[in-house]
Amino acid sequence: MRVHSSIPLSILCLVILCTTSSAQALAFRCNSYVIDVGMHKMDVMNKCGNPAMADRRIERRRFGAHQHNIAGTPPTFVQNTQVHINRGAIEYQREIEIQVEEWVYNFGPQRFMQLLIFEDGRLKQIQDLAYGK
To answer: Where is the signal peptide (predicted)?
Structure first.
């Protein structure tokens, strides 16, 4: 009987995880405050000041759901939602607009710049960029 060690596999997984990880963060420090995902943009601005760069855009996103139609039950109609019935299944699709803002904070040459992405006023993503200037 042959016994296989899982140590080499776990080391390989760790190496792959470390080399493929993106530069995303859940939080960073700004003026002795911790800024983390979920904060409102006004809280971030009050703690960090104005960003070095800010950009704003509107994104349209489509959401959908698929449901099997049991016993011929009529679909429920929701305002601004497209409903398609196909072979006994009901598909719902809805398009919404989301305000997206991208802010960049530059903390100087000793720290990474931070890209903050807000959706509808809430911080959704933090990314490390290159060293600041």
So the answer is: 1-25
Give the pLDDT band (50/70/90) at residue 87: low
The pTM assigned to this predicted structure is: 0.67
- Could you give the count of Cα atoms lying within 13 Å of 56 in the half-sphere of its Cβ? 6
Tokens 């720290």 locate to: 111
How is residue 95 written in tokens? 């398009």
What is the enclosing helix (H) or strand (E) of 113?
strand 112-119
Distance CA 68, CA 85 (A): 10
Secondary structure (3-state) at 41:
helix
Q: Which two tokens stand for residue 49?
A: 């000041």
Which amino acid appears at position 53 of this protein?
M
34-71 burial, b at 16+ Cβ within 10 Å, e below that, comes to ebeeebebeebeeebeebeeeeeeeeeeeeeeeeeeee
